[in-house]
Amino acid sequence: MRNTFSITIICLSFLIFGVFLSLSNNLFYTAKELSKNMLIIFFLEKDLPEEQRNSIEKRLNESSLVNNVHYISTGQALKRFQQNFPELQGIIENIEINPFPASFETNLAEENLSPETILRFIQVMKDMEGIEDAQFNRDWVERMQWDIGTGIFFYHL
Fold this sequence. Notes:
By secondary structure, the protein is of the alpha+beta class. The protein has one domain: Alpha-Beta Plaits (2-Layer Sandwich). The chain has 6 helices and 6 strands. The strands form 2 sheets. A 4-stranded antiparallel sheet has the order 2-3-1-4. Strands 5-6 form a two-stranded antiparallel ribbon. Strand 5 and strand 6 (152-155) form a beta hairpin.
């Protein structure tokens, strides 16, 4: 009886440890994937001259923080909206002009950038002439932290 009880306690300890380890690894993987796929969208001013748009694109491409840059025209933005929200077609049909601005969609090159570096980069780009606004998940950027020395990802609540 005593041996059975001891073996049961040991097995439960290993089970609890295994469940915790499995959850930890899954959360680590999910957080790492989310940080890799952080999208930053820079909205451009209306009727922006092409040379200014090219200058912004060049600056984004030259940045070591950016992995890729994808230009979205106003027409492409309208098509995306129509595809993603077919139930809202009536609203768009009643508007005479295209309300969607042109933009650049960018992904970060590295997932282990500090939040301060990311926010500084976004602010520098927002201050650039021709960029009207930037969209990104500020809460996510401010809460994520990757400890490069230990390889541990922290998400501050």
